[in-house]
Amino acid sequence: MKTIAIDVGGTKIKYALYDGSLKNFESMPTPKNRKDFLLAILKIAALYPDVNQIGIGLPGIIEKSGKILNLPNLNFLNNFNIIEYFSKPGFDVRIDNDVKCYLRAEIKKGLGKKHKDFVLLSIGTGIGGGIVVSGKIYSGQGSAGELGHMIIDSGKDLSFYAAGKTLKKFDKKEMQRVSKYLGYALINIINIFDPEAVLLSGGLVTNHLKEFLPAALKYARANLISSKAKTTPVLKSELGEQAGVLGAGLLFGPGSGKIKA
Q1: Distance CA 251, CA 190 (A)
Q2: Closest alpha carbon to 47 in 1, 89, 94, 3
Q3: Number of domains in the chain
Q4: Could you tell me if residue 158 is inside a domain?
Q5: Cα 230 from Cα 98, distance rounded (Å)
Q6: Could you tell me the residue range of the domain that residue 55 belongs to?
Q7: Distances (CA, A) of 114 to 109, 120, 186
Q8: Considering the domain boundaries, does residue 187 fall inside one?
Q9: Is the pLDDT of residue 260 over 60?
Q10: What secondary structure, in 3-state letters, does the chain show?
Q11: Residues 160 and 216 in one domain
Q12: What's the CA gap between 235 and 66, in Å, rounded?
């Protein structure tokens, strides 16, 4: 069964055809208004006229009905029901939070296959997160895992201090700042969840991991409360930039925890 798999980010839309594996992986800049965004999705769908299934990962909080509650970096889609919109021309659409799509990919195809309990921190234009307990995605009442919004300092959250959108030069000074605040985040994540592993994904991880992770780990491990927690593996996802697209394709798989109309 074929699915048009789409991962929507703050700066790029990545997409491919999924039929058990990804084919024709491509990307485009994320449009800056609703009209152009919807047109972009339709143009992607038009590449595969014989496929009516579309899986979409979106960076924010979404209701089971398909209504988008809050996309901090794409707020022109807030209060819009994307499933209803695309069902009118006959598409079967399933959507989920983008990091939950990453989690789905990790569980089925990535490092998550080796761990029953882990936390994923995705660091891109914004910062997202997800939690897996006993091999299943933990959603709480629907929005669990929004780790980018943990308050770090002076009422400001992790995304305010360390997301890709805060970086201008990617120089040593800025990377030191990212290291400090991601160190704070790792302390909180490991102290609270005591996971088997923490996985890292996202554009900043793909392109700049070596510049910020060693210092972040050094700071975190010096401040963890459990001696065993100090050895918690912090691992880069092996799925790379295709993880979100793969997870969007898996929205039509069995046990996917999908959101659909």
Answers
A1: 28
A2: 3
A3: 2
A4: yes
A5: 29
A6: 3-100+242-260
A7: 10, 14, 20
A8: yes
A9: no
A10: CCEEEEEECCCEEEEEEECCCEEEEEEEECCCCHHHHHHHHHHHHHCCCCCCEEEEEECCEECCCCEEEECCCCHHHCCCEHHHHHHCCCCEEEEEEHHHHHHHHHHHHCHHHHCCCEEEEEECCCEEEEEEECCEEECCCCCCCCHHHCEEECCEEHHHHHCHHHCCCCCHHHHHHHHHHHHHHHHHHHHHHCCCEEEEECHHHHHHHHHHHHHHHHHHHCCCCCCCHHHCCEEECCCHHHHHHHHHHHHHCCCCCCEEC
A11: yes
A12: 32
Alpha carbon distance 244, 127 (integer Å): 14
Taking only the tens place, the pLDDT of each residue in 22-70 is 999 999 999 999 999 999 999 999 999 999 999 999 998 988 788 899 9
Same domain, 74 and 94: yes
pLDDT single digits (tens) 181-190? 999 999 999 9
Q: Is 103:118 a contact under the CB 8 Å cutoff? A: no
Query: Does residue 62 sit within a domain?
Result: yes
State which amino acid sits at residue 199: L
**CATH code of the domain in which 170 resides:** 3.30.420.40
107 assigned to some structural domain: no
Shared domain check, 152 and 95: no
pTM: 0.86
The length of the chain in residues reads: 261
Q: Are residues 120 and 201 in the same domain?
A: yes
pLDDT band of residue 259 (cuts 50, 70, 90) is very low
Residues 153 and 139 reside in one and the same domain: yes
Structure tokens belonging to residue 79: 């209060």
Residue 88: φ, ψ to 5°? -65, -40
C-alpha 235: how far from chain center: 15
Asked whether 74 and 30 are in contact (CB, 8 A), the reply is yes
State the Cα–Cα distance between residues 33 and 94, nearest whole angstrom: 21
